[in-house]
Design brief:
The protein is an alpha/beta fold and about 350 residues long. Helices cover about 25% and strands about 20% of the residues. One of its GO terms (molecular function) is asparaginase activity.
Length: about 350
């Protein structure tokens, strides 16, 4: 008979939340995660079975790459039947990329995978790390009355807000409200109580087994448009050897220059098999390529809509699809489909 005590696996990848100041030098150092309860004694008040799985050595989030995403997916798959939920402690700089990638990698996920971190080390007096960690663990262990997970998806929890991972972007390097989900409402808010929004949370089929994908192809580039962008720059980007996909960050609702050379370059690239996905530079909203003539010209050139994808989501989704050897047509179709709640199609 399975132990009824809620169980959570903490996976420490690195980042500010897991650091303490050296009392002699004042320099930040990674602390031994076995001493977690010493730094966060409040965790003892949970009637949970909490285990930890630290990366050794820890990875600065600026160095996170697809091989580390694959490692995370592997750890979760290996321990999937042993725990009710998972909390990933991660540096904030690339947390939204990791959350987006995992949302595609963990097919048939029916348990919470909550990423969190902090702006201040967990050992400092005013740290935001303790509250983020404690609440993330509570969410990872939360269950509905029928025993199913309350939040069976990949999320980021930061400063009292639980957000769908593939909808988040880091928006602040200074304040505690480091992340925002501009195009999808928060899944829960933590105050005196944690208020969940069941209608916004993805439904899971617990009968389907978890499939952990680990393949990526990083032959992707982000091309951000700006007034005065030169033809030679666009040409050089679109002719990078081995390039397979481009995230094109356009103006407003998906608009771009109508210069003959620009449209021609895009059309020639798509005809060579390069997948070009149009997303907006705006933090909120999405592209509507049929709305203006400029967007229509992009469609005619073979550019596809990224709808309201975040840049982090668009890049990781392309890497994920390219890594699985799909045809150009299949990739284009899946980029126009919601695989894990990452886009809203109007």
């Amino acid at each position: 008979m399975k132990d009824a005590t809620p169980s959570v696996l903490l996976i420490y990848t690195g980042g500010t939340i897991g650091m303490i100041a050296n009392p002699e030098t004042g320099a930040l150092e990674n602390f031994n995660f076995a001493h977690l309860l010493k730094h966060v004694p409040e965790l003892k008040r949970f009637n949970y079975r909490i285990s930890s799985h630290p990366f050794d050595p820890p990875i600065d989030s600026s160095d996170m790459e697809p091989l580390h995403w694959a490692r995370l997916a592997g750890i979760i798959a290996e321990h999937y039947e042993m725990y009710d939920g998972f909390v990933i402690l991660h540096g904030t700089d690339t947390m939204a990329y990791t959350a987006s990638a995992l949302s595609f990698m963990l097919e048939n996920l029916s348990k919470p995978v909550i990423l969190t971190g902090s702006q201040l080390p967990i050992g400092t007096l005013r740290t935001d790390g303790k509250e983020n960690l404690i609440t993330a663990i509570e969410i990872a262990a939360a269950k509905n009355s029928d025993g199913t997970a309350t939040v069976p998806e990949v999320c980021i929890f930061f400063e009292n807000h639980l957000m769908r991972g593939n909808r988040t972007t880091k928006i602040n390097a200074e304040n505690f409200n480091a992340f925002r989900s501009f195009n999808y409402p928060v899944l829960a808010k933590a105050g005196i109580h944690i208020k969940y929004e069941p209608n916004l949370i993805r439904k899971a089929d617990g009968k389907k087994p978890l499939i952990a994908h680990r393949l990526f192809d990083t032959s992707v580039v982000i091309l951000t448009l700006f007034p005065g962008i030169e033809e030679r720059i666009v040409t050089s980007v679109l002719h990078v050897p081995g390039l397979k996909a481009v995230v094109l960050k356009t103006f407003g609702s998906g608009n771009a220059p109508q210069k003959e050379w620009f449209i021609r370059q895009l059309k020639e690239a798509t005809e060579r098999g390069i997948v070009i996905v149009n997303i907006t530079q705006c933090t909120s909203g999405g592209v509507e390529m049929e709305r203006y003539e400029t967007g229509m010209h992009l469609l005619e050139a073979g550019v596809i809509s990224g709808y309201d994808s975040t840049p982090e989501c668009a890049v990781t989704k392309l890497m994920f699809l390219l890594g699985h050897g799909l045809t150009n047509k299949e990739i284009r179709q899946k980029m126009n489909s919601s695989l894990a709640g990452e886009i809203t199609k109007r």
